[in-house]
Amino acid sequence: IVDLGGGVGALLREISTHCVNQRLICIDRPEVIRLASTHPKIEFLTGDLFSGALPSSDFYLLSRVLHDWPDEK
């Protein structure tokens, strides 16, 4: 499960209690990821939603991020 714009990983932390065998990846801007505390089940990566390659995943989360961008993006 990849959480795009996942902030400090709050949603994935909750998911990790229910999906114990899933690979969990949180992607956000470098300045946000620096604020995230480590978690044994979550991999934190810096990235951009609009450019660059994303990790391969069967499931991508876009929670509370789409309203931040104009429709053109």
TrEMBL record:
Catalyzes the transfer of a methyl group onto N-acetylserotonin, producing melatonin (N-acetyl-5-methoxytryptamine). Residues 1-73 form the O-methyltransferase C-terminal domain. Keywords: Methyltransferase, S-adenosyl-L-methionine, Transferase. Transmembrane segments: none annotated. It comes from Rotaria magnacalcarata. It is an enzyme of class 2 (transferase). Its EC number is 2.1.1.4. GO terms for molecular function: acetylserotonin O-methyltransferase activity. It comes from the Eukaryota. The lineage of its organism: Eukaryota, Metazoa, Spiralia, Gnathifera, Rotifera. It holds the Pfam family Methyltransf_2. PANTHER family: O-METHYLTRANSFERASE CICE, PUTATIVE (AFU_ORTHOLOGUE AFUA_4G14580)-RELATED. GO terms for biological process: methylation. This is Acetylserotonin O-methyltransferase. PROSITE patterns: SAM_OMT_II.
